[in-house]
């Protein structure tokens, strides 16, 4: 056994357990209906005395919290009495615990609610009732609740881990020591022995060459790449002496040769120019090779196996040889990665095409790839970035790319298509920046991806964009849907990419082979194919029946009806969610009903769950923001408003909502900036309307 864990709520009643049947309790309510509950830790200790140590620890933690709270100057006994009289079920210890939770003694130093797990108790027990041996028990505070997470680990496993850690540390120290010895020897060889040897060889070679009158050969004995040490400075002086001697001696020798024949000088000049030309070609190939290797390291398909399958192809037009290596360089880029964003497995990919040939396009692509890779690494290593929703992360990447390339004043232009796909739901968030339209292959039909807007190429000033408030593409993929994006997919391209893709049934390998085999093509070729193999949510017959009943109940009600009139509809929708936990219609309508009857806390909780499991519903984000504000969570309300702004930057009602929240937070500059955006949107709409009328 490697141990086990379980979760208890604020009253020490089991929430989860390794053996669920052992903590379940069936009771009857006043209507003789069965109610399924779980036992408390005290009940479990009564069943098995070996659990008593853990139960006592959990009870002690609650008692300590209650005592600490009672001693607080802000403690109000009247609130405690109100809790006891408000609900017959809220009596005794439960009322005291509710009062403790309201006081929140575990809140953070900044004054915010407790949001971090902390170790509250550690103890050692003998003969654990599940493991049957000595064990270590750790009790943690569950974040943002007063629930407790209990971890039980066999003592034998902990000891083994300590031994292995010690052995690993010894091995690491040994390896570090060996590396230090090797590096010291290597440094002595490189920094002292080798420079001395090269200096001595150059001095002796200069003496022999001068004695034989071979002045032109002196340049061959120049010491390569001397450093800035004392030995290096001596080498610099010798190099200058070699150059001066070679120059003076060469001049004397050239004058002597000029008196014999002019043709000899001409031949030497031709040979020198030829050598220079070859040297330039060699160094240029070296620059190309370095750039191509850097781009190669920052591109490619690095996704994990999952429901989103990525296939990339690329062939650059400029192919060359450097020494013994063959390489290619150009202005196209394909790259894909798997990430975790906002706690959801996410696949991101990028297809780009830079203007210019060879090194010009490659330079722009190298900058673009470096920016994208930096955001990938931050998404993997920075906690706040990992918590970002996919669309917010994607928007931030595009904004930085746009700012960087705008600084090149139009000398570096890049078109790209960049997207993030929620692996579980298949919802795609996409940004098209001057790239050809993305193609959707569904049920044998090839069409443009619906709702795709053009953000304009990178390198164009943001103020000059045709659509300064272009919406982000939000599209829910269906199982077996295929997306194709490629710079060659432009409407006027030859051959017709869309016709070729339809003919090959969206087979990326066949499409790429057909493009690369076309002798008329003299440009870079790249292609990204995306297929979602996720499962479509099935319908639940009982849930659908419940939805029908809820609609019938709501048919005769209006906004003038009181909250109690809507309660039967709420109860019916809650039953639907018990049968189908994430039913889209039930979650959406129940959130709106909670908001209508004024239960803003429940509305906010359900709104967050809905947005997480149905991320394609853009309009719902405004309702979620309002529910969160009504429940007193202004920061979270602003987050949802920002998510909607990223998707629909021209949504005036949402911008007004964000202005209201910014003013509440005292963020006057943000509020003024949002007001300016609203004014700009209205001006653009007015200009478009006037153009239509004319």
Structure described in brief:
The chain is α+β, with helices and mostly antiparallel strands and about 700 residues long.
Structure commentary:
The radius of gyration is 36 Å and the shape is extended. The protein contains 20 helices and 20 strands. The strands form 5 sheets. Strands 8-12-13-14-15-18 form a 6-stranded mixed beta sheet, with helices on one face. Strands 2-1-7-6-5 form a 5-stranded antiparallel beta sheet. Helix 7 (262-298) packs parallel to helix 8 (358-381) and helix 17 (620-630) runs parallel beside helix 19. The chain folds into 4 domains: 4-146, no CATH class; 189-288, no CATH class; 301-532, PPM-type phosphatase domain (Phosphatase 2c, domain 1), CATH 3.60.40.10; 541-693, Tetratricopeptide repeat domain (Serine Threonine Protein Phosphatase 5, Tetratricopeptide repeat, Alpha Horseshoe). The N and C termini lie far apart (79 Å). The chain is an alpha+beta fold and 694 residues long. The longest helix is centred in the first third of the chain and has 58 residues, at 155-212.
């Amino acid at each position: 056994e490697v141990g086990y864990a379980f979760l208890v709520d604020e009253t020490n009643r089991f929430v989860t357990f390794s053996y669920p049947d052992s903590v379940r309790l069936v009771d009857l309510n006043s209507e003789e209906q069965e109610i399924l509950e779980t036992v408390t830790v005290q009940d479990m200790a009564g069943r098995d005395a070996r659990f008593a140590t853990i139960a006592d620890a959990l009870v002690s933690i609650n008692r300590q919290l209650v005592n600490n709270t009672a001693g607080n100057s802000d403690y109000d006994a009247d609130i405690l009495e109100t809790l006891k009289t408000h609900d017959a079920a809220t009596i005794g210890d439960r009322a005291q615990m509710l009062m403790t939770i309201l006081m929140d003694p575990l809140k953070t130093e900044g004054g915010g609610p407790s949001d971090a797990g902390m170790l509250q108790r550690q103890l050692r027990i003998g003969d654990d009732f599940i493991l049957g041996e000595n064990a270590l028990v750790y009790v943690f505070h569950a974040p943002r609740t007063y629930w407790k997470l209990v971890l039980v680990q066999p003592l034998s496993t902990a000891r083994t881990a300590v031994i292995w850690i010690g052995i690993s540390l010894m091995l690491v120290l040994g390896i570090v020591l060996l590396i230090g010895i090797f590096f010291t020897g290597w440094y002595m060889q490189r920094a002292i022995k080798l420079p001395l040897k090269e200096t001595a060889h150059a001095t002796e070679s200069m003496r022999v060459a001068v004695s034989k009158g071979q002045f032109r050969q002196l340049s061959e004995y120049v010491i390569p790449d001397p450093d800035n040490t004392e030995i290096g400075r001596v080498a610099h002086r010798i190099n200058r002496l070699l150059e001066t001697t070679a120059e003076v001696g060469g001049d004397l020798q050239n004058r002597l040769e000029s008196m014999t024949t002019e043709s000899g000088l001409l031949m030497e000049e031709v040979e020198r120019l030829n050598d220079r030309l070859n040297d330039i070609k060699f160094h240029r190939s070296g620059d190309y090779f370095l750039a191509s290797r850097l781009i190669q390291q920052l591109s490619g398909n690095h996704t994990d196996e999952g429901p989103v399958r990525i296939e990339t192809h690329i062939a650059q037009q400029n192919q060359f040889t450097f020494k013994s290596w063959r390489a290619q360089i150009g202005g196209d880029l394909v790259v894909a990665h798997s990430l975790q964003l906002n706690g959801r497995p996410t696949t991101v990919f990028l297809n780009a095409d830079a203007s210019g040939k060879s090194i010009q396009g490659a330079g722009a692509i190298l900058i673009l790839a470096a920016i994208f890779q930096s955001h990938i690494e931050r998404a993997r290593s920075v906690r706040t970035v990992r918590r970002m929703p996919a669309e917010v992360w994607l928007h931030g990447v595009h904004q930085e790319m746009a700012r960087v390339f705008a600084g090149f004043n139009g000398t570096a232009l890049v078109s790209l298509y960049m997207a993030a796909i929620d692996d579980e739901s298949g919802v795609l968030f996409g940004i098209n920046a001057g790239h050809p339209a993305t193609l959707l292959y569904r049920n044998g039909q090839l069409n443009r991806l619906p709702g795709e807007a053009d953000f304009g190429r990178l390198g164009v000033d943001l103020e000059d964009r045709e659509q300064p408030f272009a919406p982000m593409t939000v599209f829910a993929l269906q199982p077996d849907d295929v997306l194709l994006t490629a710079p060659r997919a432009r409407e006027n391209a030859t051959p017709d990419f869309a016709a070729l893709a339809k003919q090959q049934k969206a087979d990326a390998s066949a499409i790429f082979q057909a493009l690369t085999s076309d002798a008329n093509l003299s440009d870079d070729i790249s292609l990204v194919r995306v297929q979602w193999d996720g499962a479509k949510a099935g319908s639940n017959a009982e849930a659908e029946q419940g939805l029908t009943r809820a609609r019938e109940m709501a048919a005769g009600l209006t906004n003038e009806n009181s909250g109690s009139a809507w309660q039967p509809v709420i109860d019916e929708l809650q039953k639907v969610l018990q049968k189908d936990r994430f039913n889209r219609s039930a979650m959406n309508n129940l959130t709106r009903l909670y908001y209508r009857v004024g239960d803003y806390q429940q509305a906010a909780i359900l709104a967050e769950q809905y947005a997480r499991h149905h991320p394609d519903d853009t309009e719902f984000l405004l309702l979620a923001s309002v529910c969160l504000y009504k429940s007193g969570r202004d920061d979270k309300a602003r987050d949802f408003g920002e998510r909607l702004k990223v998707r629909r930057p021209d949504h005036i009602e949402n911008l007004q909502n964000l202005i209201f929240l910014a003013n509440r937070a005292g963020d006057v500059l943000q509020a003024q900036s949002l007001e300016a955006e609203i004014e700009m949107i209205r001006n653009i709409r007015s200009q478009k309307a006037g153009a239509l009328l004319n």
